[in-house]
Structure formats: structure tokens, C-alpha cells
Write a structure and sequence with these properties.
Glutaredoxin, alpha+beta, globular, 7% strand, binds glutathione, Glutathione S-transferase Yfyf (Class Pi), Chain A, domain 2, 4-stranded mixed sheet, 2 domains
Amino acid sequence: MQLFHSPTSPYVRKVRVVALEKGLGERVTLVNAVPWPEPTAVAAVNPLGKVPALVTDDGLVLYDSPVICEYLDSLSPARPLLPPSGTARWRVLRLQALADGILDAAVAVVLERRRPQAERSAAAEQRALAAIRRSVAALPDELRPGASPFDLGQIAAAVALGYLEFRLGGESIGTDAPSVRDWWQDVRERPSLVATRPA
Ligand SMILES: N[C@@H](CCC(=O)N[C@@H](CS)C(=O)NCC(=O)O)C(=O)O
């Protein structure tokens, strides 16, 4: 399988962590496709021009990280990352959505700060930061050290906290709350997270 990727994309990292947790790491070949500046190689397989995109061994192209993660989870019954049905499944998917939403807001802040000063919107940046703070504050209800397996929701949450540390470390966004910090300390040295840590 080919994974179109960029080394610092947190959505790509989530997919790579899933592949490693499923024991599929060796089957995934990375194809460099940094989305900026245009043109980007990923547009040849994903019309949205975004990474990650996965080309399966059958030649099927999949994109959007939740779709790719569910596909990888389906490849082997070992260590299921997503419950098959019921409330447990919706809780995992909801946590993934919360964590991916944190990423969307954090990426928006990073992009806003890269604009020329005259084009920057303080209101857009503050709105995104407020969404991050609210969403980080919602994490403790979902995360308790050792309380549940490292499923797709927890993987997404770990990747989101890693990205906040990487891009917005030192800012007051709630990640220093004891319950969030304890959970993050508990999982951050997992081999799948260490192997995919952004430089
Ligand atoms: N919802 C998508 C988000 C993917 C995404 O936004 N990737 C960024 C890199 S971090 C990208 O490729 N951006 C290029 C663009 O927006 O044009 C997913 O989960 O895969």
C-alpha cells in the first residue's frame, strides 16, 4: 500500500500510528507529497489535494484519515481499534471526531499565523483557539489512564495532543490540566507514537 504523506501532517501521523498498532507498518510505503506549495503530487490521487491518501494493494484510492483508519482496521481481526456496533462504537467515533476537530482548529491557527500580517485575522485565530480550549476541556470525560484500550479514538486524541505540543506548546490551551496531562504522559512513549513523532 502507498501512503501519500507529509512528515508533519498530524492526520498522516494518525494513519501511521493505526498501521503500526495493527502490525501493518511493513505493508505501508510512504510517498512524499507535501501539499504546499502547489502543485502537489497527492492531487494525482486525491482531488482534494490533501494528505493522507492511501492507494491500496488493489489500486483503490482512499482519503480522509477516518476512512483510511477504518480500512486499515478492517484488514486484520488482530487488535480491533473500532468496536463493530453499538454505543461503544459511537463513543470511539465521537472521540476521533473531537480530536480531529482539535487538529482542524490547530492547523487553522498555524496557517493564520503564516499569513502576511496584513492578511491575518485575529478574530479567526481567536475563534479557533477557543474551539481548541473547549475541546481539550472535554477530553477528560473520555480519557482515563489505563481505563480502556488504545483504540482509534484514543489514537486520535494522542495525535491531537502531540500536535498541540508540537505547534502550540507553551500556549495556555488547557493541556496542562492534570487529567489530560496524566493521560498524555501515560501514552506518549508508546512505540507507535515514538516512531511517528514529528521532527
Ligand atoms: N479531514 C482530512 C484533513 C486532511 C488535511 O487537512 N491535511 C492537510 C495536511 S495537515 C492538507 O493536506 N492540506 C492541504 C490543503 O488543505 O490544501 C483528514 O482527516 O484526512
